[in-house]
Design goal:
The protein has 329 residues and is α/β, with parallel strands linked by helices. The protein has two domains: 155 residues, Alpha-Beta Complex (Quinone Oxidoreductase, Chain A, domain 1), CATH 3.90.180.10; 144 residues, 3-Layer(aba) Sandwich (Rossmann fold), CATH 3.40.50.720. The strands form three sheets. Strands 3, 4, 5, 6, 7, 14 and 15 form a seven-stranded mixed sheet that branches. Strands 10-9-8-11-12-13 form a six-stranded parallel sheet, with helices on both faces. Helix 10 links the parallel strand 12 and strand 13. Helix 5 packs across helix 6 and helix 5 packs across helix 12. It is globular and about 60 Å long. The N and C termini lie close together (12 Å).
């Protein structure tokens, strides 16, 4: 079978090699999933560079998020062949025609009618947004949520999940195209942060009160400005640092304005509270079947072009998610 392999660390568009490798066999507690679609994520870029928190020894196959069909089961596995699933061979493995995944906590069933591209793009982004908004921020109906980078993979998920919860959404994005995407996703107000001061927009839209919840995957200057428009008893959820700079959180300012700054490291729940992951998956599938969420796909890319498309993603020239279809190539 074909798989993208990293033999030495570096930028994926320079070090990834498409090779013929042996088909995997399931060990005890494992299943083999034929990959129908796999998502391209920025953490795959970091993984290839050796800059991610988990560092598999080369050679390895990147791709921590996929969808497909169970084709073989190992000893002790109570799953049937033919089951359609989201597979999480985290942190690596999905950029291949077949992948080995733990049956416990590594696969999540999906509806038969769900396209593999949507399934592959669902897990990390929508789980992260759901945990951030519902568990860390305790979002309530009719609250105002400020979502930064709303056209990105996790930002687009946050807009939809906030809307599904009955919240009002103000979103920021860079450029007219991405602003329009935020509106199409359900944002009540969308702001081009390169052209307009979102602090003023938030204050005007809320009668001076500010945003009850700020969803921030950017950090840096965006975090600094968000502190100026967070509401009394508001919550700023730190989701990531796509802007590059890790901002300071002055405790005197949090005290004076009575707001909270909380972090969301979704991957840690897989280790410390793994029972919450399948519960959240079930909730997301219900929202999907009700038509309240729909993963935003920028492009379905040919399997042979994965390295080049990872470079496109790394230079922030995309929106939503990119996916590839190994078994359809």
């Amino acid at each position: 079978m074909r798989a993208w392999q990293v033999h030495e660390l570096g930028d994926p568009w320079e070090v990834l090699q498409l090779e013929e490798v042996e088909e995997p066999e399931p060990g005890p507690g494992e299943v083999i999933v034929e990959v129908e679609a796999a998502a391209l994520n920025f953490f795959d870029v970091l993984l290839c560079r050796g800059e991610y928190q988990e560092r598999p020894e080369p050679p390895f196959t990147p791709g921590g998020e996929a969808a497909g069909t169970v084709t073989a089961v190992g000893e002790g596995v109570d799953l049937e062949k033919g089951l359609r699933v989201i597979a999480t061979p985290f942190p690596s493995g999905g950029y291949a025609e077949k992948v080995t995944v733990p049956a416990q906590g590594g696969v999540f069933p999906i509806p038969s009618a769900m396209p593999p591209e949507a399934a592959a793009a669902l897990h990390v982004a929508y789980q992260s947004a759901f945990f951030a908004l519902h568990r860390r921020a305790n979002l309530k109906e009719d609250e105002t949520v400020l979502v930064h980078a709303g056209a990105g993979g996790v930002g687009s998920a946050a807009i939809q999940i906030a809307r599904a919860a009955g919240a009002r959404v103000i979103s920021t994005a860079g450029g007219a195209e991405k602003v329009e995407i935020c509106r199409e996703l359900g944002a009540d107000i969308a702001v081009d942060y390169g052209e307009e001061n979102f602090v003023n927009v938030v204050k005007e839209a809320t009668g001076g009160r500010g945003a009850d919840v700020v969803f921030d995957p950017v950090g840096g200057d965006i975090f600094d400005l968000s502190r100026k428009c967070v509401a009394f008893e508001g919550r700023i959820v730190v989701v990531g640092f796509a802007g590059g700079r890790i901002a300071d959180a002055p405790t005197n300012h949090a005290l004076v304005k009575n707001y909270s700054v909380v972090g969301l490291h979704w991957g840690l729940y897989n280790k410390n509270m793994p029972e919450l992951i399948p519960e959240t998956h079930d909730a997301l599938i219900r929202l999907y079947e009700e038509g309240k969420i729909e993963p935003l796909i920028f492009e379905t890319v040919p399997f042979e072009e994965v390295p080049q498309k990872l470079e496109l993603l790394a230079t922030r020239k995309t929106y939503g998610k990119l996916v590839t279809k190994p078994s359809a190539s």
